[in-house]
Fold:
Amino acid sequence: HVQLVESGGGSVQDGGSLRLSCAARTGTFRSACMGWIRQVSGKEREGVASIDSDGIASYADSVKGRFIISRDNAKNTLSLQMNSLIPEDTAMYYCAASGNCLNYNYWGQGTQVTVS
Structure:
């Protein structure tokens, strides 16, 4: 069983920064593909960024150059540094894990990010 707990959300002004963290309680974090997915109420989920077990990251076009995903396998922690935030980044952000980067099997409870 994998448990994911996000933290670091909040409210920030346009152009500001936030750092999200995800603590993973699992013995298989090192081999997992990890990702951040966001969702606005009433809209479909959007994959924001992912990082595989080799540390290779990928980003949605909407956040490239502004967001950085990283992982610390020693601490079982996933992070998302969000810079130059814009109101369109407002959403609930979820941490997710899977054995590959295609379909996520495990999800956190989400953390709200609001940019105004």
